[in-house]
Structures are given as structure tokens and as C-alpha cells.
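seq as requested:
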Amino acid sequence: MKMTKLSVWLEPTLKMNVPEGVTFPKTGNVTVKDENNTEIELAEPIQYDSNARELTAKLKNTLSTDATIVIQFQTKVEDKALGQTYETKVSAAGKDSNFTPIDVSGTANLTVEDYAEPQVQFAGKVQKESEGSWIDTIQANPNDLVNYTIEATLTNDYTVWSNQKIVATIPNNLENITVDKAILRRPHQTDSELPLKLMTESGVQKVVFETSEATNAFTESGSKLILTYTGKISVNVGLNETLVTPVSIEGLNSKGQAIQPIAGNINLAVSEGTLQFTTTSSLDFGVQELISISEKRHAPDKNIEMLVEDTRGTNERWKIMATITQEFTNGTSLLNGGLTFVTDTGSIIELSKTASQVYEKNPASNGTSNLIWDRTKGQGLFLQQKAGMNKIGSYQGELQWTLTDAL
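C-alpha cells:
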């Protein structure tokens, strides 16, 4: 309330109507101040009429030219006021310098902005297990262990997203599902963990998170739900198939109405996998004396070791073949002897330029096989030296290992 120039206000009294959309102030919480933010002395305590939602302040002193009076109090906008406009009436009474009664009033409108519709963003990723850790991927092989992460993030402020629900439909050929947890992450707050459910509807598995707790509602941009679960890709998956995981996100807005559902997919390409290996690249059979009778077997300087990685997921057998591609020679002289392979069961296989099977895994299992033939136990590759016809010198040869799934 502001006075005009060259005026006097005797017995000043102010009345203010508190609109319905805000809480009525408690006794003692209202102050009357001037333009310098100094409290004005009152003739009596402010009257609080909560039924009429009216405040009355009677000032003790006369006011003169250009005086400004401010009624101040803190209040809270009520939920019912969202989207509404309320009228506030302020009146001033008293007498002028001629002791003529004064009674003026005015109104102001209070418009309460409604909450915005929540905007939710979906993101999903897949990781696969590799040597004891998880790595991000968009491609995997049959029988791989994979981890799914789903994030639903609120991207706007001044909003409410409550009764959140997220459903991930598990595709065929993803099995052994293990649900982990749901994390509620809000800015500047400690994460909360909530349970996930694994459900089956009409034979279809679903990972489900839902909450109706009011304390779990999101109101701040950057708040997010994070869901994680693991599964294993079936060995029966079709070659070059894509596993599609549909995800739906639901909830309620500030009015308790359903938000526009958010839907998306997490895609994981499944390749046919590979069958590959690494092995010992070179061997030395040492310096040996020439012999004139019988024959001798010489062990190499290291074991034969092979690391076979099978990501085919078919459980089909595989075998290792050995073929001499260059016989032992010393210049133009051919070694009188050759290579033999002793299996872990003691079988002796004489190697030649024709491929010989030295190992078979049947049925095979997906993953890594670490094969070691221990020369100290008489296993693996040996040089068989025969008597006569050999010359002093250095002999070299080549052997080819082949990993195959051919029958």
C-alpha cells in the first residue's frame, strides 16, 4: 500500500484476504514494514481470521506523504492450487486530515503454474563377460554371459514422475536370467536400492520394476532409475540372429494421470562364433650325438601348449591335426628319422606329410580349453632319431597344426 503526495492518513488500518491456494499464515508470522524494510509499530496485535482467511493490521502512528506499507508473510502453495488463479483483495481504512473516513481497496491475482508433464529418456546397453570383467558390446556369441542395463532419466524440472514402472521383455534364446537390482539415483542424494522381479506371463519372461511409494517419486531433472540383470545366450540361437529386448516405461504425473508410455528396444546381434587357437611356435631338440645302431627319442626344450577358444556355442566336436610340411634337412641332407606325437593316453602317432589327428574334444563346450602335453611325462612332440645316414650339422623342419571341426 502506497500513499499519495500531500496527504495524511489517520488511524490507518490494513486488511488483506489470503487466497485459497496457499496456506493461511500462523499467528505471529506476519509483519508490517515500511519502504526501508523496518517494522511499523502497531496499535494492537495483528488479527488472524482463518475462517474468513483475513488479516487485519491497525497501525499506531499517523502516516504522511509517500509512505509505503508492506504486509509480509511466508506461505506455501497447496497442491490443489496447481493450474488455478486466485484473487487477493487488499483494503485500507482510516481518516484523512479532515477526519473524513477513508475506505479504498484493490485486488491482485495469484496464478499458480501447473507442474509440467514429465519428460523421460530411455537408454539401454549390453555388456559381455571377458576374462572376468564386463565390456560394452553390441555383438555376442552363443553361450556368452551378458549383462543388461536399462536407464530411465527424468530430463525436466518442476514436474512429478511417480508410480514408476519399467518392463523389459526377455527375448527367446536368452536364458538363465538373474535379476540384480534397481537403483534410484537423485541429484545430491544417496542412491537407493530397490528389488527387481522376474515374472512369466503367457510363457514369456519379463524383468519388472514398479513402485507406488510417494518417497520414490522423481521431481528433479537428472533423477534416474537404473535396472540391471544378466542372462546367457542359448546355444540354439540362430546364426546371425538379433536378440531384441522391448522395454516399456510408465508412471503417473502430478495429477495422478498416466504419462505417455515410453518404449524402446535393446538390440544384441549374435554371430555364429569362431573356433581358433594359439600354440607353441618353435621347438629345439638340442644337440644330439650320431648313433650307429637302433634309434633314440629326443624330447624338445618345452612342452606343447595350445589355447583353444570356441565361441560357436554349438557344442560340436573339434580336433587337432598335425602335418609335416617340411622334413628335417641339413642343407640337402635329409634326416634319417622323423617326428612322433605321444598323446596323454600314451598312444604314439608317427607324423608325416599326411594330416594325423592328435587330439579330439567331443562333445565340445563353449569357452576356452588350455591343453598342455607334458614332455616330462612322455607326452607331446618328440624327435625320433634313427641310426646311420645322418651327417653332422643343424637340421630344421616345419610342422603345421590345424584346428578343425570337420567330421
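The domain at 8-111 is CATH 2.60.40.2110 (Immunoglobulin-like).
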